[in-house]
């Protein structure tokens, strides 16, 4: 019990809380939001310690890094002053932004999530079914695969400025760019997965007098799509990277636009807050995807 109270993460947490009230030569916001963030991490840490019956080293290391980062950040601004205040604002000022600018942040969040959901859904959906068709038909594979590989070799970020410039709206441009960044890798992986399906499985399906269409939908699709669903985290991360880049070019809303807007105004307090918001959103999405994988794809995991 003593080890769960007196440990490095808790000591760093206490030091970070104390440093939040330390004075400085510039205006500081009341650290309520910052303290709430620290408290949330502390609650998560305590919960993990309570649930961990044997191995707690990972939790100790993780939260030591978290609280150590915040403490070092605060000390770097208020004590060491390694950068000018306007370039490296204190964490309490950054987290204070969430309490006063939440309306713009929520609007940007919903704008970005709409584009992510639509474009990733379309990109993976079309990529899976086109890849299934091309992988199944040898002539189509030989004719189309070289073209697809050539197009996929060019990152979507390269042609994003051009598509943003010629598309009628930014929303349509973002969907097109993200779609292309998701569709081609998904299709290539699907073609490869179809080719790797064992011939014995296909022969067994034919022995049951299944048509080609039934084999595609009932046998190959479940067999090949599951690995792609397992790579959903990579697709989402790619989509966010493309979207953030596109939003810095021609958007008037969104998470990337929020960061770009305040960078242009040299308001780095709100810039840091926007970056933190993007990190939280991506982390939360990854956590949801991980939960989905554990619940829905449990049968593809190793029994070990």
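^ Assign residues to that structure.
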């Amino acid at each position: 019990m003593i080890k769960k109270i007196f440990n490095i993460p808790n000591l760093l947490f206490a030091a970070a809380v104390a440093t939040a009230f330390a004075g400085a030569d510039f205006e500081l916001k009341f650290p309520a939001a910052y303290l709430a963030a620290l408290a949330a991490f502390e609650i998560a840490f305590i919960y993990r310690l309570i649930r961990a019956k044997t191995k707690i080293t990972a939790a100790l290391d993780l939260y030591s890094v978290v609280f150590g980062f915040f403490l070092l950040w605060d000390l770097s601004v208020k004590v060491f002053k390694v950068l000018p205040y306007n370039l490296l604002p204190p964490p309490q000022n950054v987290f204070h932004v969430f309490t006063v600018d939440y309306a713009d942040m929520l609007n940007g969040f919903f704008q970005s999530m709409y584009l992510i959901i639509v474009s990733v859904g379309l990109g993976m959906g079309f990529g899976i079914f086109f890849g299934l068709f091309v992988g199944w038909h040898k002539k189509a594979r030989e004719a189309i695969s070289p073209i697809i590989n050539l197009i996929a070799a060019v990152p979507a970020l390269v042609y994003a400025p051009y598509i943003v410039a010629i598309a009628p709206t930014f929303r349509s441009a973002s969907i097109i760019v993200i779609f292309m960044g998701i569709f081609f890798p998904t299709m290539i992986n699907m073609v490869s997965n179809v080719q790797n399906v064992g011939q014995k499985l296909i022969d067994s399906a034919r022995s049951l007098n299944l048509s080609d269409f039934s084999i595609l939908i009932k046998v190959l699709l479940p067999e090949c799509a599951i690995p792609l669903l397992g790579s959903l985290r990579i697709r989402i991360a790619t989509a966010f990277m493309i979207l953030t880049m596109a939003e810095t070019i021609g958007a008037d809303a969104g998470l990337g636009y929020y960061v770009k807007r305040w960078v242009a105004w040299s308001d780095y307090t709100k810039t840091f807050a926007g970056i933190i918001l993007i990190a939280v959103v991506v982390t939360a999405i990854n956590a949801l995807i991980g939960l989905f994988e554990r619940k829905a794809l449990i049968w593809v995991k190793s029994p070990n």
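The chain has two domains: 8-100, 103-300.
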